[in-house]
Specification:
- It comes from Coffea arabica.
- With 323 residues, the protein is of the alpha/beta class.
- 37% of the residues lie in helices and 16% in strands.
- The protein has a 9-stranded mixed β-sheet with strand order 3-2-1-4-5-7-6-9-8.
- A hairpin with a 6-residue loop joins strand 6 and strand 7.
- The longest helix is centred in the N-terminal third of the chain and has 30 residues.
């Protein structure tokens, strides 16, 4: 492996040194400034393949992702506490500085999901694994897009679930459709998982490749055949911020699409369908070549949609669909 001595890698390494030397990753002027600068550095589309960097940079990236996850957890807890102090917390969600990103990501994921729901038009039950103290994805989807669906949010941290449920207590609709379970995803049984039409897996559930693959394997063994799995990944320089999920990691699933946003929405979105036993994997790009880049159909949305200025890529990679 060759360590690319380019300006981007050097800059990210410098941010890592500064961030790792902080006494605390809780929100503060220094923490906010460093992470904002890091994110702005990694957002522009970049052809870099972080998996081909040298071992030293790979190790730095792994540690940086862990630090980003820890800082994100503190940020969500901080704003969940602030929102929980209002009589009607959901009326003040724009207090959270990245709320607009969640609106865009929610719309993106809803559009992708809608394209691939075959047997049902609207899922009745969705599981979100790794919902945290500020479950904005579930809130956005339940409020704007899936207004009759029930959402079951799983998090290993009881305090996160307590904070999250407090945000919804005063809402007459969501308080009846949003449920919180304090449980490790690896302990969620087949009888439970088979109840869900769709399972979302948060980006920071499984902070390294091995842990992520273990979680995916558990879902593959226990989800209902035909159910949809939606995951968040990262592409290009954004992979310094979040773990990468590659189609080849999704054993037991048919990968349907991979979407790479190119605006301020950081995460890529992967959608896959749980295979039935003996079900053949059908390639979406038969006759189109091994690696095809197509315009994202999710950009074809009404003018009021926050994604209408979003430039995204839809990627089908046949060589990565290894089952």
């Amino acid at each position: 492996m060759v360590c690319q001595k380019d300006a981007l890698v050097q800059k990210v390494c410098e941010f890592y040194e500064k961030i790792s030397s902080l006494e605390s990753l809780k929100p503060s002027k220094d923490v906010d400034m460093l992470f904002t600068q890091l994110v702005l550095t990694c957002i522009p589309p970049n052809p870099i393949d972080v998996t081909k960097l040298c071992k030293r940079v790979q190790e730095m990236r792994s540690k940086l992702i862990t630090l980003c996850g820890e800082a994100e957890g503190h940020l969500e807890s901080h704003y969940s506490t602030i929102l929980g102090s209002f009589d009607n917390p959901l009326d003040h969600l724009n207090t959270f500085p990245y709320f607009n990103n969640y609106l865009k990501l929610g719309r993106l994921e809803f559009n992708i999901l809608s394209q691939h729901l075959t047997n049902i038009k609207v899922p009745s039950r969705i599981a979100f694994v790794g919902s945290g103290p500020l479950p904005l994805t579930s809130i956005v989807l339940a409020s704007y897009h899936l207004t009759t669906t029930s959402f079951h949010n799983y998090d290993i941290d009881p305090s996160a679930n307590s904070m999250a449920s407090r945000l919804l207590a005063s809402d007459p609709d969501l308080s009846k459709r949003m449920f919180f379970h304090t449980k490790d995803v690896m302990d969620v049984t087949s009888s439970e998982l088979k109840e869900y039409d769709v399972v979302f897996l948060a980006a920071l559930v499984g902070m390294d490749k091995e842990e992520k693959v273990r979680v995916i394997d558990h879902l593959a063994k226990n989800m209902a055949p035909g159910a949809i799995l939606m995951l968040r990944s990262a592409h290009g320089a954004r992979a310094f911020l979040y773990p990468i999920v590659e189609p080849r990691d999704l054993q037991g699933f048919e990968v349907l699409s991979v979407f790479h946003p190119t605006d301020e929405v950081i995460n890529s979105v992967v959608i896959a369908r749980k295979l039935s036993v003996g079900m053949p994997v059908q390639s979406l790009d038969q006759g189109l070549g091994a690696h095809v880049m197509l315009p994202c159909k999710c950009a074809e949305i009404p003018a009021f949609n926050p994604l209408n200025k979003m430039n995204m890529i839809e990627e089908f990679a046949a060589e990565d669909r290894l089952l």
